[in-house]
Amino acid sequence: MALLINAMIIAGALLMVYNIIRYHSFIGKMAWMQNSQRDKHALYLPLVFLILFLIGYLLVAFIGEPDLLVAGILLGGSIFVFMITQLLHFIVNKVNRDQRLQEALDEAQRASAAKTAFLSNMSHDIRTPMNAIIGYTQLARRDGITNEEVQNYLEKIDNSSQFLLELINDILEMSRIESGKMEIESARSDLCHIMSHIRNMFAEQMIQKQIDFTVKGENVTNTLVICDEHRLNRVLMNLVSNAYKFTPKGGHVSVVLAQTDLSDEKATYEFRVKDDGIGMKPEFAEKIFEAFERERNSTDSGIQGTGLGMSISKSIVDLMGGTIRINTAPGQGSEFIVTLTFPVVEGSDTVCSASAQSVEGCPISSPDSDDTVPVDFTGKKLLLAEDNEVNREIALIVLHEKRFEVDVAENGQIAVDMVKASAAGYYDAVLMDVQMPVMNGYNATKAIRALEDPELSQIPVIAMTANAFQEDIEFEHEAGMTAHITKPIDVDEMMRVLAEYVK
Fold it and tell me: Which of 119-133, 142-156, 181-195 shows the lowest per-residue confidence on average (mean pLDDT)?
């Protein structure tokens, strides 16, 4: 009998210790749910009673003379407390699980509502430029129309096409961000050149809208850094574009590059884009960097946009390890401040490209190179590898106007055969589409690079393709392509590239 009593007491004591440990864990899960400190303290009161129960338990067991009844009561109490703690844990886990599920459901519903609103806006925003393109095309076909009217319609068609292209690019870029495919490609870059590029991109638009537009530097001593120039340009262009859109005629837009720190061969910069436009409400400013968000649709404001530009900018800045913040108020304009830290290129405290000469506050040196694009390509011979008839026709018209002589290949295999059969120096370059039947542009380029005649194998092969992502350009380099031209073709950019490689 004594052995049974002792076994019951030991089992009860161990179970009570386990109960105390379990309840302490339960407190840890419950404490974060309590709003007041008083409520949190109340959770510890049962723990005190459990400890006192255990002490009394041990006193009875080792000082008193417990009989079977007392031992049974003590063991039963421990089992009861064990069941209660197990029930509490089950309830808490279920509440937590339900709460997490509800939060996930709420988030999914918010995302669904945002995307539904986005698609509704996109339906309108895509149809708007398409309506203009189709409508003005039909108007231009009317009998008796004057050349001045045709030119006016073509200008409006071009503007609508550019907006439609911007819209498509934003959607594709956001898709890449959400899938985790965007990567930062850092290289030696000139911050003053970037500022000069931004100024040149928007100067004419600002003049036409009579907006006072300034671009300058403040305390900039290190201008050459290691960064992703393309992505940084994208961020700044998004910010300045927004400032332009939402600033009325006669307003002011400023872009400032300020160097705020230099330590451990790294410098910190602020890019500040400020306008005195319509500004934003505080509740919208808090979610401006969320995807698919717009404070108003284009029907309400007369201003078109995808609502993705700020989200894309925030994602790029995050990937660069920086921050972006906003100061704004309705009717008082907005100021976006992007803070980034870049490794400094040695000796960059005195060097800045000549392209930044008119950017106030940037150090300037003599020109590094002559970027003049030749205007006469008479006698230069190109091979155009393009399977799409419309794309071929457009490219031929542009190239013939620039006095190029052009042969055509309808797929990659024909292009390889034509290069292989040509005399050395017959073709000055190959314009190579990527997606073609029989043999694609990548394989065609590899086949050209594998030719035995070195003068043929080293001919410049320039990709001219709608595949415009960074990994596409990397694939082109791996295949041996020399440069990249993006479709739809920008004629000025096309001529710049050709001028570089067609000597």
Answer: 119-133
